[in-house]
Amino acid sequence: MTATDHRTFIKEYTRALREGDAAVFAGAGVSRAAGYVDWKQLLREIAQDLELDVDRESDLVALAQYHVNHRSGRDRINQLLIDEFLEDVELTATHRLIATLPLNTVWTTNYDDLIEKAFEDAGKRTDVKRRKEDFATTRRRTDTTVYKMHGDRTFPSDAVLTKEDYETYNTQREVFTVTLKADLAKRTFLFLGFSFADPNVLYLLGRVKQLLEANSRKHYCILKAPTPGESPDGDYDCKRFAHWLTDLRRYNIQPVIVDKYEDIPALLSELNRRSHLRDVFISGSAADYLPLGEAGFRDLCHGLGRELIKHGFNIISGYGLGVGDSVIVGAMQSLRRNDDERLQLWPFPQHVPAGTDLATFWRQYRERMIDDAGICIVLSGNKREEGGIVPARGVLQEVEIAQNQGKVIIPVGATGHVAKQIWDDAKVSPQKYFGGTDVSAFFEAIGDSTATPDALTRSIIEMIKLFDT
């Protein structure tokens, strides 16, 4: 089976992310990179108790069942789950990048809670389903539902570990099966952290096969291909891997091959970047409206808010002085109703808890605000201090944060002040702000302070479209 090339995968999965139809299924490899044990490590002592060699066992689920049979109970294996997955480990780049994607559904077979922590760290609310009882209630205003398909360390006696657990799954955890079937039909899944040597994979794929309907959606799985010589069985693994890729076709799963596991964060970063290219953060403030004048500057902000929404872009605004209110008025002209997904407002709090450094708080606030944007538009950027008009340090900081996060930055030089300063730098170093995209057709136009507000708006919108391809 020919693997899907990275360009095609990114384009198609980005479309699913933007349409709200994407899901991620995280396997053991995602958590293994954080330092948690894999199945072989978890069951090594258990195998020794049975006088078996875990490295010679191909069915580790059956091995767990042998242990339960031998002890007439699963008390020790429950304790192992508690002991091994209570270790305090750091989130990996993969966990954090998953949490940056616009996902409302995540499935996992992992017993740890790193997925949930990653979403919480990203400022997102999760509703976690560990047991069938959890389906009876729904946490309100959640961003993402996390389905722990095999339970987790919180309720070790309910975790799916043994052969009997798998055999009785549809009876004991039927609600998970029903929900997964519906998600496989209506969402495009990205499987991460799975390998053909993973003992869960055969059981998981078998369940997926049972749940798939005819003409079901296409799904993707990022896999590292084995290479000859990397292990004693490397040559054999390469041959077997080729057959396994062909077999994935039966599950409508398209493989996406990487040379090394370290390539996966780069793919996720690109998905994050592309999926947010329709999310536009508007940075700016204006106490002095020159060179456009107050009427011209406000007309530009009105038109920008109106046209961004009209062309299908979403707006994120920190409600900057002289900018935010005008952008909002324009946006509401194109919105049929108040929609906090299309228009996100982040007004800056002026009072913070005692002992909190305001500058540190505001920077962290800006980082979270900009995190979900793909493009940053810079307008004006000045404030009034004793002695006159000065550059707005907050706007400069927002540009710095956007650069650190790899955002596209569009400085509207025609509005002067910080925006003109950034525009001048972008003229000399376009790669720094626009990557490899050629913006020459519109760059000079957004720096022309004699242009009309409507002409500036058109140029900005057309320039943004260059990145959304």
Can you walk through the features of this model?
The chain is of the alpha/beta class. It folds into 2 domains: 6-274; 278-467, Rossmann fold, CATH 3.40.50. Helices cover 47% and strands 14% of the residues. The chain has 21 helices and 14 strands. The strands form 3 sheets. The protein has a 7-stranded parallel sheet, with helices on both faces. A 5-stranded parallel sheet has the order 10-9-8-11-14, sandwiched between helices. Helix 6 runs parallel beside helix 13 and helix 14 (293-310) crosses helix 15. The protein is elongated and about 85 Å long. The model has no long low-confidence stretch (mean pLDDT 90). GO terms for molecular function: NAD+ nucleosidase activity. It holds the Pfam family STALD. Belongs to the soluble Thoeris ThsA family. It is an enzyme of class 3 (hydrolase). Residues 3-270 form the Deacetylase sirtuin-type domain.
Characteristics:
five-stranded parallel β-sheet; ThsA_STALD; Rossmann fold; hydrolase; NAD(+) hydrolase ThsA; EC 3.2.2.5; 2 domains; Ssirtuin_cat_dom; seven-stranded parallel β-sheet; 21 helices; alpha/beta; 469 residues
Number of domain modules? 2
- Largest sheet, strands/sense/barrel: 7 strands, parallel
- The N- to C-terminal Cα distance equals 28 Å
Instruction: Name the helicity range.
Output: 40-55%
Number of helices: 21
The neighbouring-strand order within the major sheet is: 3-4-2-1-5-6-7
